[in-house]
Design brief:
By secondary structure, the protein is of the alpha+beta class. It is built from 7 helices and 13 strands. The longest helix is centred in the C-terminal third of the chain and has 17 residues. Its EC number is 1.4.3.-.
Length: 276
């Protein structure tokens, strides 16, 4: 992968903060707006595909054909693809070995010109932390987006999250007049103990990809293609390689699972240091 090295001075000129001492810049990169990507994919579906929204699946029953039950009605299907990550646990199929981790983000109001230029001269940029528990920053036009924090299986209060993210924001940009946010939110992702994925045929007619570990866009795209190959009876070297990889490792039952996860998060926060 092509990359360029940046010292503290270069990073400061780019982002407006001297908080960081060193960074690597990938020259093969792209910034994606996830919601726009999802809407675009939905709008581009072929005519033989029917998209149902606002119809969450509550249960999958039967042995084939399967009955897919939703809040509104039920459907019959010979083959099913389950690619809803952590929520696969709620399908009644005993898909486990995943932990739910909430992480949080906030967006500033539109900043006036003099404040916006305190975030660097570039119109947009993104900084990714070296440590997985660290803080992500993104300059989006006239706003700053910040993402950080982690909690196990339960979302923290908005007041706690706002204070935490404001602290990380002020640590990096003390020169700003205000460190208040217009929007604050949280989202849940799934991780596994060893980083392994649920991938492949879960049982005859049911195919699963779950446990993204925060890399859903890249892994999810290729997993979708490979699951289609598998369900269609096709093969490829990439599919063979993927099927040969290890799946998620065993997790202890509660309450040991919760205690272990909390310890892991605490240790990661210590290791993350100034990356938080």
């Amino acid at each position: 992968m092509h990359k360029a090295e940046n010292d503290r001075a270069a990073l400061s000129q780019l982002s407006g903060t001297d908080y960081y001492s060193y960074g690597l810049q990938s020259l093969t990169r792209a910034l994606v707006q996830p919601a726009a990507l999802h809407r675009g994919l939905a709008d581009g579906l072929p005519s033989n595909v029917t998209l149902l929204e606002q119809s969450p699946v509550t249960e999958i029953a039967g042995l084939g054909p399967f009955e897919v039950r939703t809040w509104k009605c039920a459907f019959a299907a010979e083959q099913i693809f389950i690619t809803n990550n952590l929520h696969a646990r709620a399908m009644g199929l005993n898909i486990g070995r995943m932990l739910g981790i909430f992480t949080y983000a906030a967006l500033t109001p539109e900043l006036p010109e003099d404040e916006r230029f305190k975030l660097g001269e570039e119109q947009s940029w993104r900084l990714l932390p070296a440590h997985r528990i660290g803080t992500t920053l993104r300059k989006v036009g006239r706003r700053l987006l910040i993402r950080s924090g982690a909690s196990y299986e339960r979302e923290q209060s908005s007041s706690h999250v706002s204070a935490l993210l404001a602290k990380f924001y002020s640590n990096r940009f003390p020169q700003m007049r205000s460190h208040e946010f217009q929007h604050v939110w949280g989202g849940v992702t799934s991780i596994t103990r060893n980083g392994g994925y649920h991938f492949g045929q879960f049982k005859p007619g049911i195919y699963v990809s779950a446990g993204c570990g925060g890399a859903g866009l890249a892994r999810g795209a290729i997993h979708g293609r490979l699951l289609a190959e598998l369900a269609g009876g096709q093969t490829s070297q990439l599919l063979k390689d993927r099927l040969g990889m290890k799946g998620p490792s065993w997790l202890p039952p509660e309450p040991l699972r919760s205690v272990g996860a909390q310890i892991e998060i605490a240790v990661a926060k210590l290791q993350g240091g100034r990356e938080r």
